[in-house]
Amino acid sequence: MILATACKQRSKSPALHVEKYNFPFNLNYPSKTLELGKKLKEISGLTHDDMDQLWCINDEKALLFSLDTLGKIVQSIDFGKNDDYEGLSYGKGLMYITESNGNIKIINLTTEEKINEYNTVLKKKNDIEGLYYYEKGNALLMASKSETKKGNIKIYKFDLENNEISDDAMFTIDITNAVDSLETINTVDHFFVNLTLDARIKQFAPSGIAQDPYTDFFYILSSRGKLLVVIDEKGRVQYIQLLSKKLFGQPEGISFDSKGNLYISNEAKSTKANIQIFNRQDSILDEVKITSLIEQIFDTDTLKSDTLIHRSDKPTTTYQNKERN
């Protein structure tokens, strides 16, 4: 009976972090879930405007939607021809939308019209999925899902002053190298657990990006491998969390409201399309249930993967975690 009870409860998820970093959310306990209708079953980009109104787009449809607090559509804006639309971000009265090939469309929310578009030097092979309006740099950050031969992930910068992609990427993230400098938490030191943890991290491929308004850290979502990666403004990895596949069927969009609460959208897959809302918090449950943790770590698709990270030179440390996660 005790074992059955433990399995039904979701505890903290396996993660890696730099020393003393405290993650301010528990991603196993949504504060609220918005179930979405059929028009948003392939929800991709997600963002908030300066009034905390929630906006989103649906993959392949040239429609921009605003939602109420129940996830119902209250407004839609047609911005042209259907295509592979992935990223969405708001900035100073404008809505920016990117296609997977890196082309950008700009919508004026006051007039509800497309006012401009840019064909960038990026191509379909760059597979752009995440978009974020970076006010400090007057730029759009564009997260590429494609991987180089070295396994680096690139976040490109579209300069809104010159209306072009900067020559150098804003960030180049070597997730394999970053793992070696992080400490493991909320897991057990076991060969198969470590193997599976490493395999999922190796699958990192951005599907969304947003910036925490309180810390200025960037949160990068990855549907592949079901991961959330946090980096600082210099591109250094601070935190990696494995997401529960029971909660995150296909995580594609990510955004923060003005209070620093976190929103993650999921395309319809094992469940209906939804938006999970996680309120910022100062403390979480301390109890670690190992049975539930092992359930979350193991995944049949991952076990079949040929891509693994080897960390034989650095033993994995087990924590009875009292960090915020």
Labels describing this entry:
37% strand, single chain, 325 residues, mainly beta, 6-stranded antiparallel β-sheet
Please explain how this structure is put together:
It is a single chain. 42% of the residues are buried. It contains five helices and 23 strands. A hairpin with a 4-residue loop joins β11 (128-134) and β12. The strands form five sheets. It has a six-stranded antiparallel beta sheet. Strands 11, 12, 13, 14 and 15 form a five-stranded antiparallel beta sheet that branches. It has a single domain (2-23, 33-303), classed as 6 Propeller (Neuraminidase). With 325 residues, it is mostly beta strands. The model is unreliable at 1-10, 283-291 and 300-325 (pLDDT under 50). The two termini are 27 Å apart. The chain has helices at residues 2-8, 175-179, 191-202, 290-297, 300-303, and strands spanning 15-17, 32-35, 43-48, 54-58, 63-67, 73-78, 85-91, 94-99, 104-108, 113-118, 128-134, 139-144, 152-159, 164-165, 171-174, 183-185, 208-211, 218-222, 227-231, 237-242, 251-256, 262-266, 274-278. The chain is globular, with a radius of gyration of 19 Å.
Task: Describe how the helices and strands are arranged.
Layout lengths: L1 H7 L6 E3 L14 E4 L7 E6 L5 E5 L4 E5 L5 E6 L6 E7 L2 E6 L4 E5 L4 E6 L9 E7 L4 E6 L7 E8 L4 E2 L5 E4 H5 L3 E3 L5 H12 L5 E4 L6 E5 L4 E5 L5 E6 L8 E6 L5 E5 L7 E5 L11 H8 L2 H4 L22
Antiparallel strand pairs: 1-16, 1-20, 2-23, 3-4, 4-5, 5-6, 7-8, 8-9, 9-10, 11-12, 12-13, 13-14, 13-15, 17-18, 18-19, 19-20, 21-22, 22-23
